[in-house]
UniProtKB/TrEMBL annotation, chains A, B:
Residues 15-272 form the Endonuclease/exonuclease/phosphatase domain. Keywords: Hydrolase, Lipid metabolism, Magnesium, Membrane, Metal-binding, Sphingolipid metabolism, Transmembrane, Transmembrane helix. It is a multi-pass membrane protein. The keyword RNA-binding does not apply. It comes from Serilophus lunatus. Its EC number is 3.1.4.12. GO terms for molecular function: metal ion binding; sphingomyelin phosphodiesterase activity. This is sphingomyelin phosphodiesterase. Belongs to the neutral sphingomyelinase family. One of its GO terms (cellular component) is membrane.
């Protein structure tokens, strides 16, 4: 087990909250992030919410010396916001966009426009192929009545499936990102259980930073204090997860988070705290056993729980589809009635008072508007139903397999 | 090399053209397909354009005895249309939806609504893990002026990247589907060059079926004869591709296509001909060398050619984005002018003839409609530009890598 050289890997992960025109003191913070990254010299940097390509280009120029390899993942209307900087060559990249990501009409939340996804890089660090992912999942806007839970669960499931399918040839898998889930949430249990990924915070020998490893804390000047009221210490939603496949072993030697403002400044890097891990990767004599199988009874419970939630989401989506279908039908009916009335008027059938032209026109446009909107909604919810049903079906298959071969 | 047991794999691939209410004699054809599959007993069946879940369910019931394992891939508004039937267990599935797939406003082509994608199954056949994909790419509606070429190239690229990333742990990779590309097209050369997949038609020891392996032939009663005028023999756009990784070898012993009508009937299975391959998978002593590297100079040329086409598409998309942006601005300007006129009228500033109310209203609604439409188009083309640029950038990276390490 000993004797082989070990690799020490220092990883930095941060949700940068760099939204053009919206995020406060964005350019200053991006500059500070770049300075810190250049100073600290990590091996691997995973950033989320770098929405502006200009910010990425600026970082690339600044960090070119110490991180010669980088990639920016493009997706959606606004982008994925994901980028990677690396000291070692990035051999190949792939972006997987989740099939569900909120609702286009929830403009105030805007997740739908972002094309949330997981960006994947394949690199060689020393001799080991390393698969690294930088995911971001749909945000949670209201924990008590979380309308996006089914979507986030579909994303967690797709992320897990994607990791399983792409990690076959990698010795080490590393995932760092803003998962928008608390450690005890069903989605993170599902992701960890189904992929065998381990949580750097739980495994770290040493920890330094915000209490309980929180990454959204009340004493960060950019966080919404009212949202964090039920969590006086803050919440942990940014993770570094890893696992070793085949004959390697990964240990987290140290995990750190930033704790609010940058030393010597009055501003933190972001509204999230950064997570920094020092990992030791070591070749070991025997191939590591399937760590997954030992936890399978629990895994079946987690998949069942997730499937129930997806089922709830499915019924809501079906209800919404029915409602929009009905609305479209009503609008169509109104239009047909108007057309009949107009034809009647043209044929000179209305002997009495004619319907006022302006109101008639306004009503027609209203009906057309509602018809178009309701049809678009119907199509959208049809797609939603399809994806939720597909995920539920996949989970059912996995449960069956888990029960047949425990 | 000899001594190890070989596996014989019989594969069936067909674009079923089973669109509800639109495809002629759909139910009858699906029944015929089911009968043939049950009679022939293939090991693996890859179907595309099974748009109705009811058709899939009917097939599943009929084929349950000889193909106990199956999966239907759901995506998009209408669905992906992809399904797999297998004699061996399907261990896991994953669907990858292409980031670009035509234009939502090209209703007559409808590809955008289909969520075209590649469905992936991972199964064990005998002792070998087998990765199988069933892709469908954007259709080509006009070969001379193919507006969808850049989209199809992005799809071919994403498909190749997806295969590369997911195939690491598989001994054999098998891809069967309707690629909507002629054998000499840049997209298929890109896909084959970048993944190392081999064309069963070119490799087959024996071939039987339509001349040149064509799968869209003029003597099929459902094909559009005028579209096939430049190709008197027909075109070959449905493929079975394969490769062996690690220490396996795959040989195509026999390839067949159907040739029009089903024997004893007056109707063919579909407007496409089915492709059937008999493959021999054999373990060999030495690990197969990287077949990719020998062809790399050509690969660089193919990637360059594809990148040029994507670049052309990028400029068109940028132009369309600019046009829709301008149209949205004009509509906004018109609305503002109208608002100013209306305010003026309210304030009693128009001493003379007032603007007729009805026309005023109609103009307002027209401006709102154009504004909404142009904004939606602008957002759509922004996304298109982003994805085309992303693909171009990825291709540039690959070219650089190919030049640095020839």
């Amino acid at each position: 087990m000993e004797g082989d050289p070990t690799l020490r890997l220092r990883v930095f992960d941060l949700n940068c909250w760099a939204i053009r025109y919206l995020s406060r003191r964005r350019q200053e913070r991006v500059r500070l992030i770049g300075d810190a990254l250049r100073r600290e010299g990590f091996d691997l940097v995973l950033l989320q919410e770098v929405w502006s390509e200009q910010d990425y280009s600026d970082l690339k120029v600044k960090l070119g010396g110490c991180y010669p390899f980088s990639h920016y993942f493009r997706s959606g209307v606004i982008g994925s916001g994901l980028c990677i900087f690396s000291r070692f060559p990035i051999l190949d990249t792939l972006l997987y966009q989740y099939s569900l990501n909120g609702y286009p009409y929830m403009l105030q939340h805007g997740d739908w426009f972002c094309g949330k996804s997981v960006g994947l890089g394949r690199r060689r660090s020393g001799s080991q192929p390393l698969l690294l992912g930088s995911p971001q999942l749909h945000a949670e806007y209201c924990r008590d009545k979380d309308a996006y839970l089914p979507h986030r669960l579909v994303q967690a499931w797709e992320l897990a499936q994607f990791i399983r399918h792409t990690s076959k040839g990698a010795d080490v898998v590393l995932l760092g990102g803003d998962l928008n889930m608390h450690p005890e949430d069903v989605g993170i249990r599902l992701l960890r259980g189904w992929t065998g990924l381990r949580d750097a915070f739980a495994e770290a020998t040493r920890f330094e930073g915000c209490e309980d490893g929180c990454t959204l804390v009340p004493n960060n000047c950019f966080t919404d204090k009212s949202e964090l009221l039920p969590f006086p210490l803050g919440i942990r939603i940014d993770y570094i997860l890893y696992k070793a496949i085949s004959s390697f072993m990964v240990k987290c030697e140290e995990l750190k988070t930033t704790t609010g403002t940058v030393p010597g400044m009055d501003v933190p890097f972001s509204d999230h705290e950064a997570v920094m891990a020092t990992l030791h990767i070591q070749r070991q004599g025997q191939a590591a056993g399937a760590t997954l199988s030992t936890a399978e009874p629990t895994l079946a419970d987690v998949v069942t729980e997730a499937r129930t939630e997806v089922g709830v989401g499915l019924r809501v989506a079906q209800q919404q589809r029915r409602s929009s279908g009905r609305m479209a039908l009503l609008a169509l009916l109104l239009l047909l009635l108007q057309a009949a009335a107009a034809l009647g008027a043209l044929a000179g059938l209305d002997a009495g008072q004619p319907f006022p032209k302006l109101s008639f026109c306004l009503l027609g446009f209203l009906a057309i508007g509602i018809l178009l909107l309701a049809t678009a909604l119907y199509l959208f919810h049809t797609m939603e139903v399809k994806m939720l049903r597909g995920t539920e079906e996949q989970m059912r298959m996995v449960l069956q397999a888990l029960q047949e071969h425990p």
